[in-house]
Description:
Layout: H1 6-33, H2 35-42, H3 58-62, E1 109-115, E2 123-129, E3 132-136, E4 141-142, E5 146-151, E6 155-160, E7 165-170
Antiparallel strand pairs: 1-2, 2-3, 4-5, 5-6, 6-7
Amino acid sequence: MKRPPLRSLLLYGALALVLAASAWTHLQRRQDDVPELAEARLAPRAALPKREEGELPESVNSQAGPADALAPIFNLFAAADWDAPVAPPPPPPVMQAAAPPQAPALPFEYLGRTEVVGEAGAMLIHLRRGSEMFSVRAGDSIDAQYRLDQVGEDALHISYLPLSSKQTLIITGSR
């Protein structure tokens, strides 16, 4: 079997020395910073001075010590309220009364009129809706939804039958 090269051995040795030095300085600092901590760990629980829950020792209050200094003092499992006070929900929006239904805009375009011969004042009105053409007289219904009520000189009065609402179609250039 092949031996590891000398360079690898030196790197592993340097790593071991750095880790040992780091651990040693950490332990030295810990003992020097909080002398009361070492005694507290060795002393039985009954020998520790009585403190109120949440009260810190003088050495911890006066200087920043390691986090382990707080471990024997605080009850980590004490009841705590983590929920922030909840604000009451906003009042529900006031529902406004729905607007009454309205008839759709008139889908018709005025094409012209024709006077019926032999009938006094009878007019035949020509309307277009898309590609459909309608020829109606006053009183006739269109697709059972609209009815031509009255023919005027410059307007047609049309009723939307489902809602019984009246609409006006303005005639421009009728003569």
